[in-house]
Amino acid sequence: MWRWFTHNHQTLTGIGAMLVGIAALYVAWDQGRVMRDQQHGSVFPVLQVDGFVSTTPEEASLGIRIANNGVGPALVESVTLYRNGVAVDSMEAYGEQLPDGYDLSWAVLTGRALAPDQLVTPIRIRWDRADITPEDLQAAARAWDEWELQVCYCSVFGRCWQTSPVGGARAERVAMCQRGESDVFENLGAARAAAGYQ
Q1: Angle 62-65-70 from CA coordinates, rounded to 5°
Q2: Average pLDDT score, the chain
Q3: Where in the sequence is the domain holding 152, given as residue range(s)?
Q4: Is the separation of the CB atoms in 163 and 47 below 8 Å?
Q5: φ, ψ of residue 27 in degrees (nearest 5)
Q6: Does 159 reside within a domain?
Q7: 122 with 107: CB under 8 angstroms?
Q8: Average pLDDT of the residues in 124-152
Q9: Does a structural domain hold residue 125?
Q10: 7, containing H or E segment
Q11: Would you say residue 2 lies in a domain?
């Protein structure tokens, strides 16, 4: 055995070089993986969807706020509204439950890029304080319980998540977001304009 080692220096050198090459390849792969993870982490968006109810001496309002609490832009690909677990493209049924005399403002979400720390209010319903009782305002807020808003968004590297406001649920990673052809808030605005509201 010893004799084989002493007469096969080239073979041993080749085996050693091969082992060193394999180790270097592993180190390069591992460093590349770490760098990719660091890149994704440096642009990690985190959307938070929250409902709100607000009162001041002059007005009462309720609606939805969406904030990007992450460190990278969130590219909103689709917004889906569910009522009792069924996807719908209109909020008309919710509007019918509201006390009269409200003003409505909305903003389109689909296709929007939310920068870190950016906040958008896709829907805000407002009454003059004298036009709604606290009980009616709370009833309007409770009526939202049968509705659910899901937002699918991606990072600039194409990693995607889907979030929901129900119970403060965390966003779940999804393979991809299907780009929405319309936006429920845009549909709401079009319906209000068609009905003659500003």
Answers
A1: 160
A2: 81
A3: 47-194
A4: yes
A5: -60, -45
A6: yes
A7: yes
A8: 91
A9: yes
A10: helix 2-7
A11: no
Distances (CA, A) of 108 to 41, 142, 176, 183: 27, 24, 21, 6
Task: For residue 167, give both structure tokens.
Answer: 């119970």
Q: Which two tokens stand for residue 94?
A: 């919710």
- 23 by Cβ neighbours in 10 Å (0-12 / 13-18 / 19+) ranks as exposed
The number of distinct structural domains making up the chain is: 1
Give 55's strand partners: 60
Residue 35, pLDDT score: 52
185 domain residue, yes or no: yes
Q: How far apart are CA 49 and CA 70, in angstroms?
A: 13
Q: Tokens for 27?
A: 């180190």
At 40 the pLDDT is 42
The pLDDT of residue 70 is: 92
Each residue's pLDDT tens digit, 19-33: 666 766 655 555 555
| CATH classification at residue 78 | 2.60.40
Of 35-39, 46-50, 108-112, 168-172, where does mean pLDDT reach its minimum? 35-39
